[in-house]
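are you around this afternoon, could really use another pair of eyes. what follows is a protein written twice so to speak, once as letters and once as C-alpha cells for the fold. i want to understand how the C-alpha cells follow from the sequence so walk me through it. anything you notice is useful, everything is just below.
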Amino acid sequence: MAADDGGRHGWMFQEEADWYNEVVLGAVVPGDWWRRLPHPLRSWLRNTVGVYLIYFISGFLWCFVIYYWKRTAYIPKDSIPTMEAMKKQIVVASKAMPFYSVLPTISEYMTESGWTQCFFHISDIGWPMYLIYLFLYLTFVECGIYWIHRVMHDIKPLYKHLHATHHKYNKENTLSPFAGLAFHPVDGILQALPHMFAPFVLPTHFRSNIALLFMEAIWTANIHDCIHGKIWPVMGAGYHTIHHTTYKHNYGHYTVWMDWLFGTLRQPEVIFKMD
C-alpha cells in the first residue's frame, strides 16, 4: 500500500502531532512560549515530557506495589533493591531521556514528510490487514532488537563503552523498574531503532507506532522487576533477570522465540511467583 497516497496527506500526521503537543505541553508546561517553537522542537519537547511522565509515574507506582504494598507476595526481602541503587538508575535514565526523545521526533518528521509507509486511519486498509501488519511490525521489532542487543554484547568495544552502563545492575537486589531505561543514551537509541525503521518497510498505523514506541518505557520496567509471570512465550522478568546475571542468554524483547531459534534461550530455574 502507498504511504497515505505517497505522503500527500502529511498534514494529517502533522495535525495529529500538534494535537499531542497541545494535550501534553498545554497540561504540564507553564505559559505558551513553547507554541512559538518550530514544529519539530515542539514535538521533541512533548516527547521528552511524555517519556519523563511515563517513566516516573509507572516507576513509582510499580515500586510502591511490589516493594511496599505487596512485597511479601512478590519479592523476597533480600531481593529488594536499595534506595541508593534506584536513585542511581533514575539519574542515568533521566540524563538519557532527552536523547531518547530525538528518535520518535525524527520518526514523526519523516512520516509527516511522506517518507514512510505510515497510514492514518485503520479504515484505510481494514482491520484484518491492520492486524496482519501489526503482527509483522512486532516481528520486525522483535528480530531487530534481539540482534542489536546481541551485537551490543558480542562486540566488546560496544559493550564496554555503551551497554555496560546498563549491566551495572546485574543482581536481583540491584534490578528495579527504574533500571528499564537506565542506558547510555546511544545504546537506548540503537535498541529502539527497529521501531523507527519498521514504517519504512511495512505499512504502519501512525498512532500505533507512536504508542508502541512509548510503551517501551513500561515494558522495560516490567522485565526489570524480577517478577516472573510465567506467560509463555512472553520474555518475562524471570528470563531477563537471567540475562543480567549471565550476560549471554535471553537477548529477546517481547518473546523468547528469537532466543529459542538462535540457541541463546535459558529457562528460569528459580522464579518469583505472582500472587
Notes: The CA atoms of residues 20 and 46 lie 8 Å apart.
